[in-house]
Amino acid sequence: MSRIDTRNRGECGQVLILTVLAMAVLLGMVAMAVDVGLFLQERRSLQNAADAAALAGAAYLPNGVMASDKARDWAVQNGIDGSDGRQIQAVNVGTDRVEVVVVREDAPFIFGRVLGLTSLDIRARAVAQLGSLSGAVGLTPFGVPENAIKYCAYTQIILPSPPPECLTTLHYNVDDVGSNVGDLDFDGKGGGANELNELIKGGNKNPLCSINETPPPGCPTTEPSKPGNTVGQIRDAIEWRLANTTQHCDTVAETVGPDTDGDGTPELRAGCNPWGGAVGPDSDGDGGTCDNINWTDGTHGSCLIIATPVIQPPLPKSSGDATNVAFALFWLKGFDKNRCKGNDCEIDGYFINAEVSVTGLFVTSNPDNTPFVVLRLVE
C-alpha cells in the first residue's frame, strides 16, 4: 500500500506560486522596459523637432513675428502638427534667442496598462541663440583689401546682367603687379600646390578671427602670404567650383535673398548655402563647404559663393603678413582662360552684402558684423 508524500507536494505548490509571481514581475519589467523605450524614442523625436524649430526661428531674428512664424512652421514640418497629441506648447521670442516647447499629450502605455498605467505627457524644450561670427572656417585663401570691396544693391545683383559698375575683378599676380587679391598661407607652414587647391575648394579647417571682433585665445587674426606662382592651382580650383554647382543654385537670384528677417540685408537661401544643410557630412573637417556638398533632400549648395578674409591694405608682399578685419562673400561669375595663365589670374564676380549662417566661433550678436551669423543651441 503506497503513501503520498504530502511534504513534497506542498513544496511543489510553493515553487509553482513563486514561479507565477516571478513571471508576473518579469513580464511587468519587460512591459515597462518596452513602454519606457517607446517613450524615450518619442522624447528624442520631440527634441529633434524642437531643436530644428528653434534654430529655424532664430535665423529670422531680430524680426520677432517672422521668427515665431518660422519656428512654428518648422515644427509642423517635423510632425508637430496636432496629430496623435503632438503639438506646440509655446514659442517665446527674445532679442537674440527663440525658445520652443513641444509636447505629446496622453502618450499611451501599451503594456503598462496591466499595472494600471494609461498615459503620460512627454515634453521637449529647445533654445536657439543668434550671434555673430568671431572666427571662421571654410574661407577661400584670397586676401582682399578693404578698399577693393564694393557692394551694389540687391535689386541690381539679382538681375540677369547686373550693371557693369557692380562687377569686381579679383586680380592675382605673382609679382603683385596690379593685384587686388593676395594668396594667403592660412596655417603659416607653406604648403604646395595641392594644399592651395584644396583650400580654394574647401576652405580652412582651423578658425581665423578678425581684429574687429574680440578673438578667443589661440585664434589668429593674421596670416602670411604664400610665395610662388600659383596661377595654375587657382585656375584649376575655380574651374572645379564652376563645374560643381547645379542648376538649382547657379544664379545670384536663386542663391541670395530676399530680406526675410526685415533687417535690411538679404539672406543666402538655406538650400543654396554651402555652409548649411546642403553640406555634409563634414568628413574632412573644414567646417562644411563646397568639397562636401551632397545633392539630396532638396538642398543643393552653391560652389559659386565663396567667403574671403578682408584684410587691412595694402596688399602684403610675398614675405608680409595680412591682418583680418572682416570677412566677405563673393559670387564667382567666372573668367576667361586667357586671363588666367602665366603670372596673372583675373576672376570676375560680385561682392554680395548678404547674411549667411555658418559654422564658426560664437560671440554676442552684432548687427554690424555682416555677412556672417552663427546659430547655436544653448538649452
Mean pLDDT across every amino acid position: 79
| Count of distinct strands | 15
Shape descriptor: elongated
Number of helical stretches of at least 4 residues: 6
**Structural class by secondary-structure content:** alpha+beta
Q: Classify the helix fraction into a percent range.
A: 25-40%
Residue share in β-strands: 25-35%
Separation, N- and C-terminal Cα atoms: 81 Å
Uncertain segments: 277-281
Provide the domain count: 2
Would you list the SSEs in sequence order as H and E? HHEEEEHEEHEEHHEEEEEEE
Question: Largest beta sheet, briefly?
Answer: 8 strands, mixed
Tell me what the structure shows.
This protein is α+β, with helices and mostly antiparallel strands and 379 residues long. The chain folds into two domains: 6-129, no CATH class; 138-358, no CATH class. It contains six helices and 15 strands. It has helices at 6-58, 64-77, 154-157, 193-202, 231-243, 252-255; strands at residues 86-93, 97-108, 119-136, 142-145, 168-173, 182-183, 208-209, 222-224, 305-311, 321-334, 340-341, 344-352, 356-357, 360-364, 372-377. The strands form two sheets. Strands 4, 5, 6, 8, 9, 10, 11 and 12 form an eight-stranded mixed sheet that branches. Strand 1 and strand 2 form a beta hairpin. Helix 1 (6-58) packs antiparallel against helix 2 (64-77) and helix 4 packs parallel to helix 5 (231-243). It is elongated, with a radius of gyration of 29 Å. The protein starts with 5 loop residues before the first helix and ends with a strand.
